[in-house]
Amino acid sequence: MNRTTNFHFLRTAFFPIISSRYLLVLLVLLLCNLVVAWITIGIGEFRIPFADVIKTLAGYGEKKYEFVIYTLRLPRTLVAFLVGIGLAVSGTILQALTRNPLTSPSVIGLNAGAGLGASIMIILFPAVSIFFVPFAAFAGAFIAGALVYLLAWKNGDSPLRLVLIGIGIAAIAQAFILLIQTHGKIQLVTKATIWLVGSVYARGWEHVWSLFPWIFLLFCVTFGLARHLDILQLGDDIARGVGSRVEWQRGWLLLISIALAGASVAAAGVISFVGLMAPHISRRLVGSSHRVLLITAALVGGLLVMLSDLIGKTLFAPIEIPCGIVTAIIGVPYLIYLLIRE
């Protein structure tokens, strides 16, 4: 990187320029999210006219629609949106820390760790209430992330070591999941598999209120640290040269990424590729300044999960496909495209 590029990066890190193009992109994404949410709430086994969806949400709808919208569909849609935000922002942080556009919570082992925690709880401890499965998934993501960081530490951390060890941790976690499934009862294995594919089916307000504080607070903290993400992308030597405490900042940002991914997986199971696709799509739309990129990635992530849930509900109705399968079907070709391009 030459001096002009470095100066531009540092200037935009501390004084980001919000152009009319960025505002237009954000407005279009926000509108797309609202439209997809509106369609998702209206479509299902019991169809609700789209005009009545607006009336009911505004408080002027018919009583027969209120239960379906407020109890069944609105919380499910909100959970999908929040999960998309969590995974997208987590992926954005990881791609900045590793300076690798192919990094995501799945690649670095967070999703696999969460899946292992959930599988242990569901298959090995069936007497324990299903209520504790999200906590086990959250703990699994944290343990996987901690292992990745500790094993990657050698006279400081390294983006390359984080990725390589993350891939190894993910492989080990997947191996343990298969081992547990091989020796588990078929009914429990089926139950765990349904959770592992990722779905927002039957999510209620309790899931919304348990997920919202995590996503909101961690997003605000990440947004406040956006300039550090910009600086870390320049490389460790330049970051240290401008006064950044590289290992300390990378550790805290990695912890935030783990918390976002863990909370999202705990709420909806393992939904892959959102953390990979959303940051990459957003970077092509608005560039690399994280003040704008984080907001854009959050909206793209929410849109991807809601759209995947909508496709899963309608493609083979009345049979529903979990949104995690839909994101995988979309994400695999996108990953192949990225691999060829990179």
Count helical runs. 15
Largest sheet: none
Helix content: over 70%
The mean pLDDT is 88
Summing up helix and strand content along with how strands pair, one would put the structural category as mainly alpha
Distance between the termini: 18 Å
Number of strands: 0
Query: What coarse outline follows from CA principal-axis ratios?
Result: globular
The H/E string reads: HHHHHHHHHHHHHHH
How large is the share of residues in beta strands? under 5%
Spatial extent as radius of gyration: 20 Å
Residue runs with pLDDT of under 50 for 5 or more positions: 9-16
List the helices and strands and how they pair.
Elements: H1 3-14, H2 20-42, H3 50-57, H4 63-98, H5 110-124, H6 133-152, H7 159-182, H8 186-197, H9 205-224, H10 226-232, H11 236-241, H12 246-268, H13 274-286, H14 290-314, H15 323-341
Helix pairs in contact: 1-10, 2-3, 2-4, 2-14, 3-4, 4-9, 4-12, 4-13, 4-14, 5-6, 5-7, 5-8, 5-12, 6-7, 6-12, 9-12, 9-14, 13-14, 14-15
Q: Would you write up a description of this structure?
A:
- The chain is mostly helical and 342 residues long.
- It has 15 helices and no strands.
- The longest helix has 36 residues, at 63-98.
- The two termini are 18 Å apart.
